TrEMBL record:
Protein name: L-cysteate sulfo-lyase
GO function terms (MF aspect): D-cysteine desulfhydrase activity
Entry keywords, A to Z: Lyase, Pyridoxal phosphate
Coiled-coil features, chain-numbered ranges: none
Record keyword Lyase present: yes
Amino acid sequence: MTGLNLPRVKLCQLPTDLDLASNLSKKLGDVNIYFKRDDNTGLAIGGNKGRKLEFLLADALKKEADVIITTGSIQSNHTRMTCAACRKLGLDVILMLKGKKPAQFQGNLLLEKLMNADMRFFDVSSYNEIGIEADKLMDELRAKGKNPYFIPVGGSIGLGACGYVDCALELFSQADSQNLRIDYIVNAVGSGGTSAGLEVGVRLAKRDAKVVGISVDSEKSVFKQDISRIAQDSISLLGADLEILPDEIIVFDEYIGESGYGKPSRQGVEAIKFTAETEGIILDPVYSGKAMAGLIDLVKKGFFEKGSNIIFIHTGGTPALFDMLVENSD
Ligand SMILES: Cc1ncc(COP(=O)(O)O)c(C=O)c1O
């Protein structure tokens, strides 16, 4: 059991560090930027999904599941981390990956291969189609006497989001011990669970910090609805007396990039280089690089008041760098 009073299984290295990025802050001027290092949560190279999996897999174990099924894109960090968590817990795992099977395995796929994952590729246009296939697979497994447990894309349901409720509480406790007032929390939004959990956590802790999501996929109107819905589900699970309306959610959708989800953007790559050069911190091309591009642009546009303390949740994703960015030597 946890402070949140929900079953939880230990999978991550927590708490993650909260560090002032003094060089980056100086270069941007006017604001103080801190990194919450959720890229270092462990589980086969870290990232934000580990916190969600601590709650989701505790539920699976409680229900005596013996095989976990989940889904994600070809370079999904969620499937890689779910696979690592299942290996740690001794559970079977099947990864239903959305996209064509590539000729070579790089990045997250390579790590999944190293963990000897059961990877199944579905060249379809939506996760609904994979959901139908997952239902069939679950029926087949049940007929063989197995007890499967399905985790939706990104682990972004109320229970998974509780991992980020807990992260917000961890963050405020660290900030309090550093006498730090948090004004903003900035994070990449892919399926909404991270933002939803943070929104709930800020309210449970009764703080004024604003959560600012940077979309890497859908329009902000879609994410405002999704985040509010997931947050309400977490609130019900936690038995809290809160309401989070779509209009209260701040999401920017200007930084998805020219080529859309899963493809590096010019601004994102510049942000990756800038962060690497100033802080020696490595971001990724699909999520954290685009979120940092958003943060930098919003600082330049004066969105954050002078002197604001901004927490950037480094949600990880580093393995995708090795599939997507090729640099020559000069
Ligand atoms: C590295 C990384 N950062 C951010 C996100 C976004 O988190 P969420 O899906 O909870 O919005 C994801 C997953 O989608 C991710 O893998």
